[in-house]
Amino acid sequence: MINKVAKTAAEAVADIFDGATIMISGFGEAGSPIELIHALIDHGAKNLTVVSNNTGNGHIGLAALIENKQVKKMICSFPRTANSIVFPELYRQGEIELELVPQGTLAERIRAGGAGVPAFFTPTSVNTPLAEGKETRIFDGKPYVMEFGIKADFALVKCKTADRYGNLLFNKTARNFGPVMCMAAKSAIVQASEIVEIGSIDPEIVVTPGIFVKKVVEITNPVSENQLIRENRRYPW
Fold first, then answer.
1. Which domains does the chain possess?
2. Does the reported pTM lie above 0.85?
3. What are the tens digits of pLDDT across the range 17-63?
4. How far apart are CA 139 and CA 206, in angstroms?
5. Cα–Cα distance between 154 and 185 in angstroms, integer?
6. DSSP 72
7. CB neighbour list of residue 18: distance below 8 Å, 6 or more residues apart
8. Fewest Cβ atoms nearer than 10 Å: which of 29, 49, 57, 136?
């Protein structure tokens, strides 16, 4: 019987190893798997390469993972946001690497990785520093830059509803990078606000099929990143 349900967040992330490449969903707070990230901090895996939209906020979630010196490199679109405190300081000190990728290009690189497409051409970044050292070609008289697909060892993703097969539904814009990250990772680990019985999810509305998911864990009352920041909370607590 297929059952991908982990009992705890700690159990869900237990297989993550030092040096792994990890995709983490989220657009700001929306879709950010805070409980899984905190479990990864407790787990202690280090020298990680993290692919995410940004570098976290305050001193919780992804920012806390970075602050705990577990991340050696970030691949992201927004390394600095309004509440981004940790990453900018460590980057200035030369303690963490950065690969800056335009947001649309980042999404397509992840999608390509999941679809088995090794590389593609895009006009984004032409004639900018981000195109330096990359192959360019002319199509229909216009220049394009080659970008490589991104794959990962693990993905940490947040969704609204899952079943024990790993079929997923998301909450509106909290979907963001979640589906493509599940496809591009060898092992997608998902926290769900609820895990329902098999058959409860109409197959016609499944967003991410269970074939792309390794583990799911139920987190019925996920924390609010914005609330924790307002309270000046830090993880570990």
1. 10-221 (3.40.1080.10)
2. yes
3. 999 999 999 998 899 999 999 999 999 999 999 999 999 999 999 99
4. 37
5. 5
6. E
7. 45, 46, 47, 48
8. 136
